[in-house]
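Async update (no meeting this week)

Hi team, since we skipped the sync, here's where things stand on the single-chain job. The sequence we agreed to prioritize is pasted below, unchanged from the tracker. I ran it this morning and attached the output directly underneath so nobody has to dig for it. Comments welcome in thread, and please keep replies under the output.
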Amino acid sequence: MGSTAIVAGFPLFKATAASKLKITKIRYYSAPGYNKPLFNQARGIVEVFTDGGIVGIGEGGSKDMIEQCAQMMIGEDPFRIEHIWQNIYRGMFYPPGREKLHALGALEMALWDIKGKALNVPVYELLGGATRDYVECYATGFRASKATTEEGRARDCIEAGLRSYRIGPTGGNGDQPFDFYENAKKTIDFCKRIDEAVGGGGKWAIDLHTRFDTTEGVKICKALENLEPYFIEDIVRSENPDVYKTVRQMTTVPIAVGEQFGDRWDINTFIEQHLIDYSRVTLPNTGGISELKKIASLCETHYVGLVPHFTGPLSTAALVHVLGSSSPTRCLMELAGGEPEKPAYFNEDYLNFKNGKLYLNPNPGLGVKFDPKKATFVMEVSANTKFPHPILKSPDGAIHNW
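Output:
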């Protein structure tokens, strides 16, 4: 097995070309109390077991997608993270959709956790080491506030040390028809009140939730330029990147897009053509830590910042490792409610949060402990798929599309 010592409860392995570990089984749990039936917001917990006794944890994916991906991992060396990723990504002929990427991201997250535990280092060390002392955060809502107005909650959020307070547009959250003209005007007025409440300086941002057409979306952006929000998110729908070529030419506000996206091919046009200022792609939606790290490098090349979307508590912990070891490009993390969630199935201190900032966790792997007794067991995968597709390899052993 190559084990030389026991450190922090885990066997410490020599860093060789192969770990000599094998993946033996994968378990999937549902998160208690979380019932959103959305593939791209799934919070299932995966455990990836190895024959060396090391277990990695990840978050995300639906049952069916986790099952298909997990069946392609049994017997593999968990240290070969990129190899496993490429096999799952390419190995079923059709390119994976965003729902499958979400599952792949959960499983890949667990592989990094295994590798960090085996080598007794935090994941951010495996990704190149720390590049910043902490990651600034912004709040979508602020649970800790006792204020009865949005302006009051925004002030309390900034006073608590968070970098920015994010709001949404007026209207669109009920049974009443959404009037574009009326809600564009109300949204502009709302932003002016929030800006005054927090004192400007990029201490607020707004997500337009793709509710507006281009005309009203641009109208709002033009009206807010002098207020200098940290960013304006999802101004219009983004399936067609060309629409942002138009939007980009019509406003100078910082634009954020990407929370509904997956891998680098989803976001590359927006980054490379300078259509956005911030990428919102996140974990596990991108397909994993490695993929987000590649997107971070793409962003660095084109001077685009990183503002990942919030998905779940373990993904938040993983994001700190990625952002904390990425380039000095501007980055910001979202906290729903303005503070970390504390699910019973993770250790109380799984995130190092203070004064509105998230600090790097120095414990091995992701630094998060999972108690399966406090989650709901769904399934176990311990055998390879019975319906494998042919695998095409080049002479050097790299996997290519079949």
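Quick observations from my side:
Residues 220 and 286 are 30 Å apart (CA to CA).
The radius of gyration is 22 Å.
Reply here if anything looks off.
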